[in-house]
Specification:
Helix content: 25-40%
Shape: globular
CATH topology: Peptide Methionine Sulfoxide Reductase, Chain A
CATH superfamily: Peptide methionine sulphoxide reductase MsrA
Largest sheet: 6 strands, mixed
Structural class: alpha+beta
Number of domains: 1
Low-confidence stretches: 1-14, 20-38, 44-54
Strand order of the largest sheet: 7-6-1-3-2-8
Oligomer: single chain
Distance between the termini: 45 Å
CATH architecture: 2-Layer Sandwich
Order of helices and strands: HEHEHEHEEEHEEHH
Strand content: 15-25%
Length: 233
């Protein structure tokens, strides 16, 4: 990577890699960490839910969705993809005031968006309560607008709820977790307005780039911790 000089802007795809090198130099501790239609990256609406298989013998699967922010969406996407009962995970942006934002815009911290993941899950296999219990373990909910070396409002800890029931469950979960975290949780719980899927190269990032430095040094330890949590009876 070329050195970064004042006034020189890193290519968007390398922003997090630059933060990785900063992370290694500073040696920080890695923390333990709509049901309605939503716009796609091109601005057109996504399907409200995955279509059920065709045919008389097919059994429809009812899924729910929850949008969560816990730092870099490369990390949280990879984590949710490990959870049994999670059917689909999409990285994206929510909570801002700019329509169809780009990654570069969100990285400026001026659009109001958080990097988030939309988690589609089968509640018969994994409950919302269980997902939220895991949410508190895959990121540090006590650091305001920051996860490790990733700093800015786009990295805030946030739960976007789609229904009053989701809000109720999220607030109860946060109250329980706050006792374990010494009352230091700063996670926002706010209604979901619009979820904007991120650019294609952000989707399945860890799966397709697992040997990159950021993936090995930052994401993999989070996944190792999650695997231990999932293995507990």
């Amino acid at each position: 990577m070329s050195p970064v000089f004042p006034g020189h802007r890193l290519p968007v795809r390398h922003m997090k890699l630059h933060r990785l090198f900063t992370t290694l130099l500073m040696a920080p501790v890695i923390h333990a960490a709509d049901t309605g239609g939503t716009p796609s990256a091109s601005g057109s609406p996504d399907s409200a839910a995955a279509a059920a298989p065709a045919g008389p013998a097919a059994t429809a699967v009812t899924t729910e969705t929850l949008v969560l922010g816990g730092g870099c969406f490369w990390c949280t996407e990879a984590a949710w993809q490990l959870v049994p009962g999670v059917k689909a995970v999409t990285s994206g942006y929510a909570g801002g005031h700019v329509a169809n934002p780009t990654y570069e815009q969100v990285c400026t911290g001026t659009t109001g968006h958080a990097e988030v993941t939309r988690v589609e899950f089968d509640p018969k296999q994994v409950t919302l309560d269980r997902l939220l219990d895991l949410f508190w373990t895959i990121h540090d909910p006590t650091t305001l607008n920051r996860q490790g070396a990733d700093e800015g409002t786009q990295y805030r800890s946030v739960i976007f709820y789609a229904t009053p029931e989701q809000k109720k469950i999220a607030e109860a979960s946060r109250d329980r977790a706050n006792k374990e975290w010494g009352g230091k949780i700063v996670t926002e719980i706010t209604p979901l307005d619009t979820f904007w899927p991120a650019e294609a190269y952000h989707q399945n990032y860890y799966k397709e780039n697992s040997q990159e430095g950021y993936c090995r040094v930052v994401i993999r330890p989070k996944l190792d911790k999650l695997k231990k949590e999932l293995a507990r009876p």
